[in-house]
Structure formats: structure tokens, C-alpha cells
Amino acid sequence: MLHLLPTLLPDPIWGLTAEFQADPRPEKLDLIVGVYRDENGQTPTLDVVKAAECQLAETAATKAYRPLAGNASFNASMTRLLLGDTSTELERAATIQTVGGTGALRLLGDFIKLAQPAATIWTTDPGYINHRPIFETSGLRVRDYPWRQSAEGIDVDLIFHCLADARPGDVLLIHGCCHNPSGIDPSAEDWTEIAAFCAKRELVPLVDIAYQGFGDGLSEDTAGLHRLVETLPLVLCSASCSKNMGLYCDRLGVAMVVAPEERAIAKTMRNLENLGRTNYSMPPEHSAAVANLVFNAKAQWVAELDAIRNRVSYLRKELCDTLERQGAPASFQALRRHKGMFSLLPLSPTQMQRLRSEYGIYGSDTGRVNIAGLRAADLSMAATAIADVAAR
Ligand code: PMP
């Protein structure tokens, strides 16, 4: 049967990472993969997480199976983190622990296919490279809508124009904050308009929030999600603890369905559990137990997360200042307003390849760079290189 398998190309991001690792130049810079890096190029385990793991090593009594929905206390804390401690919508939420943000997206894809099999899911262009494959694997039809910067936020008129064909019950996937790969986030007015558009056209938003805390702060970054939940009867949400708790390989996230009424919750939960059950049975307990201790030490967590966000903001600002001083085209200054770790450099694939071959600076051919991969000491070199390839 193996001869029937399709021949697949290597994943572009991991392929480029292998190329980076083989590059002998000491000054090389890895701006490829979407993980936070510190000044030493490391992706550190948060101190608050290390303390939690030590505590668990002492106290964790059993590895016996856990409920299908995962850790109930973790699910409740995540629901509050996403919707706000005092939200009146908390009682409308069905939340299930998932295997990272990716697991949440796939579970919701399968959930949509079950509940609304003819739905089209609309994803952003440019967008996260795994969105389309995930939803297509769930059997959904996927179409793109444009995600372009406007004076204040995103070009909502262009979005609404391109969604002319969207039908009631279709799903509109929106990045909750820190759009991957563009860094362009909607303004408060944009969110209000998007919510009104979804209400008028009976679209169901799916808010993918993988970088909560990397934009303006943990609660600030959910403002858009809140606006949608306040306005609409049904909102889907996938959230990841990979970045904001640094739990990447421990695979922690949630899928949340904010239902039209409390009575829909039991049925929704049962279906979400069943989708997980027929795939991996139950999500991992260890990462959820760690996260519960992190929630208990929230002040320390927030302080560590603030330091991460401030480092990325500093690098972003310094890069823009240096590019300006070096006379790079004005289009690079758009990077100043971007949120989170990513931006798309206004460079062609050929220019991105030149950045790699001539300067050892590795970003994707699409222009995507991870700002956190820069080091303060290398900013001047990086800006010189970018300005040079931009000029040719
Ligand atoms: N959504 C977006 C927009 C992402 O960028 C990512 C990956 N960083 C994910 C979801 C998946 O998150 P996870 O690594 O937790 O599976």
C-alpha cells in the first residue's frame, strides 16, 4: 500500500532550518521558526515553569488516566484568561484541553465538519502556513481572504468585498492578535466592524490566538475576541500555551466554543470529547498541571512574559530606527506598528535568498522574519544587510 502514498515536499520552514544548521558562518542569524529567542539565541524555559515542574516532581502522585476533556481546573483558568474574569459570557463557554494550538485547530475543524459539513472556512492571505492543510484534512473547503494593512489597522473594506461569496454558517478564521506572518492587527474599530459584518452575514468567527501576551499584554490581546463574543451568538476559539508559557513541546492549548446558550454546552462538550477520544483519547496531563501552577503564580508569569514582549518591542524599534538611518525604503517603517514576533519584510524571494547567501540571515522566502531571532549586537549588521539587498 505504501506505493500509493503521495510524494510530499519537505516542510519549507524545517527544510530552511536544516540549511541554517549546516551553515558554518558564526555571524548567521536564524529568523525562521516562530519561537521566542533570548539574547543568546536560546528559547528559555520560564522560571515560573521550572518552579512548577520541581513542585510537581515532588507531589505528582499518579499518572493514571484523566478525563477526556483534560484538566478541568486548567480549562476553567483558560476560559477566564480568554474571556476575562468577570465576563458575563463565561457560562456560555465549552472549553476542552487540546494538544497545543494545532490540536485545537484540528479539533475545531473536525467539529465544524460534524456540525456544518458544507461550511467553507475563510483563512487570511497571507496566513499561517498550517491553517489550510489542517482544515482540508478535516474535510472542509478552505478559501482565502486578504489581510492588508490600512492607515489604522487592517483594510476591512477589502475583506468585506472579498467575502461577498461567503454564505451563512461559513467560518471566518481570524488571528486574535499578533497575526502570523504579517504582524498586522485590527484596530478596535476594525474588530467592531468585523463583529457587525459577521452578525449581518451570519458568519461564525474562529479566533486563533497563539500569541496572547506578545502584542500589548495578556488581557489587552483578547480585546478583539471579547468584541466578537459580546456581539455574536456563536464564536469558536483555539488558544495555545506554546509561546506565552513557553511550553512548546509539552503541547498545551484549548479549543473553546462560546455557544448561543448555556443549554448547548453539554452537547457541545460531549462532541468535542468524542472527537478527541477517537484520535488521541485524552490530552497530556503534565503540561496542564504545570499551567495550573503558573496560573497560581500569575504575577511572576506576567513579569516574565512582559520582559519577553519588551525585548521583542525593543528589537523591532531598534531595527526600524537603524533601517531609517541607513536609508532603507520607507516601506520598512511599517514594521514599527506590527505586533508580536513576526513581520513580512517588503523583499522579494530573490532578495530573501540573497540575504541568506550573502549575509547568513535566514528568513522565509515570503519575507517572514522572527524579530525575536535578532540579537541587539547584530542589529546594525542586519539593518545594513537588509538595506543593501533592498537597494538591488
Ligand atoms: N496558530 C498560529 C497562528 C500559529 O502561529 C501557531 C504556531 N505557532 C499555531 C496556531 C500552533 O500552535 P502550537 O504550536 O501550540 O500547536
Automatic annotation (TrEMBL):
The keyword DNA repair does not apply. GO terms for biological process: L-phenylalanine biosynthetic process from chorismate via phenylpyruvate. Residues 27-386 form the Aminotransferase class I/classII large domain. One of its GO terms (cellular component) is cytosol. Its cofactor is pyridoxal 5'-phosphate. Keywords: Aminotransferase, Pyridoxal phosphate, Transferase. It comes from the Bacteria. One of its GO terms (molecular function) is pyridoxal phosphate binding. Belongs to the class-I pyridoxal-phosphate-dependent aminotransferase family. NCBIfam families: PRK09257.1 (NF006719). Homodimer. This is Aspartate aminotransferase. It comes from Epibacterium ulvae.
